[in-house]
Amino acid sequence: MIDAAAVRRLLRPADAVEALAEALSAGLDPEAEPARTAVPVPAGELLLMPAASGSWAGVKIAGVAPGNPARGLPRITGSYLLLDGTTLTPLALVDGAALTALRTPAVSALAVRHLAARDRPLRLVLFGSGPQAYGHLDALLAVRDVAEAVVVARDPERGDALAAYARGLGVPESGTGAPEDVVGADLVVCCTTARTPLFDGRLVPDGSVVVAVGSHEPEARETDTVLVRRAEVYVESRAAALREAGDLLIPAAEGAFVPGRVAGTLADLVAGRLPDRGPVTGPRFFKSVGMAWEDLAVAVALYRAAGSET
Question: Nearest Cα to 191, choosing from 258, 276, 103, 128?
Fold first, then answer.
């Protein structure tokens, strides 16, 4: 069993980013991955996420329990079973919540590495104050210098705690703020449980990058139609985004977005397949829904790291 403490010990955020990049560089095609199965249950939702690639296979069984934080428990629970890809023999059981808390920020950081400005430290506006917000701070600092972090949180105490954590990571200009602070942002990251837009998309500067990871439901979104209309849109997989990403599907229903407007995927960015984008005329928006291949790539890296310890 690779428990939560072992997940944190074995793999740094930068290592998780590289594991994802290596999987894509090796030819993994996210468009061919099986769809997530979601089953409503009284406590929330059960998710089943299988994947296979080369010598490896695996499946994550995750629970999303909205009432858990009030009980002092993680909102996301579950386990990941890593299998030998040839025999389907179980190899390792990984704490599912810890795996998700590592891989989701790594996906965002990989996109940011390709989309965000490189010529200066960034001003970050971070929506959320839960485990994903902490994980995103760690992962983003592995790929970019951050000069300032503004935390926008519903709970002021939790927002203050996250800002203090950012200062401890070497971002001295860190504090709490309001949605309007996106006006001066180079990077906006949304990792919340919100089901309606968090900020006014008209306020986001041209050339900035917006990342949204909080929802994989067609009826929920963290960003508004104005932002999507203005932005270059990037996704993990066109098929997955057009199946699950409310941030895109709701604007599409309003006539403000068509699938052909997706500028590229994470695999396109890693492979360098996209043409020169030329002058930036709007924000760049990366929408992540979370995919099973990402869990597999990071679980394999954890398994290899655990083996190197023995």
Answer: 128
Spatial contact of 294 and 56, defined as CB atoms under 8 Å apart: no
| Average pLDDT score over the chain | 95
- Assess contact for 265 and 295: CB atoms under 8 A: no
Question: How many CB atoms within 10 Å of residue 276?
Answer: 4
CA 154, 131, 74, 48 dihedral sign is: positive
Contacts of 138 (CB under 8 A, 6+ apart): 13, 105, 169
Residue 138, φ and ψ in degrees, nearest 5: -60, -45
**H or E, element range at 44:** strand 44-53
For residues 150 and 164, give the distance between their C-alpha atoms in angstroms, rounded to a whole number: 11
Tell me the C-alpha distance between 245 and 40, whole Å. 18
Instruction: At 212, list the tokens.
Output: 């949204």
CA distance 191 to 103: 13
Q: What is the pLDDT of residues 253-275, one digit of tens each?
A: 999 999 889 999 999 999 998 87
Residues 52, 246, 13, 283: is their CA dihedral positive or negative? positive
Report yes or no on whether pTM surpasses 0.90. Answer: yes
